[in-house]
Amino acid sequence: MSTYQTIVAGVHDSQTGMRTVELAGLVAAETGAALVLTAAHEAGAAGAVQSVLANAATRCTEMGAEDVRTHAVAGEPVQVLTGTAREHRAELILVGSQGLSTLTGRLLGSVPSGVAGEAACDVLIVHTTTDRWRKLISRRHRKTPSRYLRTVVVGVHDSTRSMRAVERAASIAADAGARLVLVGAYVAADRKVLAHATDALKRESYIAQESVSIETSMRRAEGMARASGVESVETLVVRGEAMSGLLEVADEREADLLVMGNHQLSGAGAHLIGSISLQVSRKTPTHVLLVQ
Length: 292
Fold this sequence. Notes:
Elements: E1 6-10, H1 15-31, E2 34-41, H2 47-62, E3 68-74, H3 77-87, E4 92-96, H4 103-108, H5 111-118, E5 122-126, H6 132-139, E6 151-156, H7 160-176, E7 179-186, H8 191-201, H9 211-227, E8 233-239, H10 242-252, E9 257-261, H11 270-273, H12 276-283, E10 287-291
Parallel strand pairs: 1-2, 1-4, 2-3, 4-5, 6-7, 6-9, 7-8, 9-10
Antiparallel strand pairs: 5-10
Helix pairs in contact: 1-2, 1-6, 3-5, 7-9, 10-12
């Protein structure tokens, strides 16, 4: 993740919260990025979080991070994290997945969903409630050429934000020497409708094939990955709904990181339904990087 120069990580006093801190320390150590550990608190209660921040900073230093700063701010966590990222011009926010999959979080909003919806930079949702985080941390301490990322999966479709996600995933995979898996999805048209369209279009019948656009996007994405220096690139086009396809591939390939464009919904029901990116984040044990 060498494309990130400054990282903001949310800190709170819990076992799962420390897992986010450890991964933040690991990423900062691997990339040389400045790390801003940030804790939100109630007005007049800054002292209550200072010891938590101090312990978090010590742990990140132990993980190898060299430039670690602490930041305690009064206010709600979502506003504090996104505001701190703007203030420090951070390119990435790390936030734990707590509350993302709960009914309360879906109805009223959770910190990770709120940060994903309001951040002006990339957001890494750290899945702290599974053992997947442990695998990444433990690899850091193995004296082998491999890094903490071995497999990166990225969702591909024909949009500017998706291609930015591909570019970011390719940069991360190239830097880590990881395998990059490009995943696209399409829904096949009704056979009768497709047959009539194909007959009518004759030599231009490819226009009626819904898989053509995703295949074009996949070729473009693969070219971007190769140009970024990724040595191991796999392309998969799955038939059916995009979210299911991504989840299946990430699980089958035992992905260490799943990268997606940060497409957000707005208006009534946005918290309950959520974007595809947040739905995927709720359903996978893999850490998810949402790219702006």
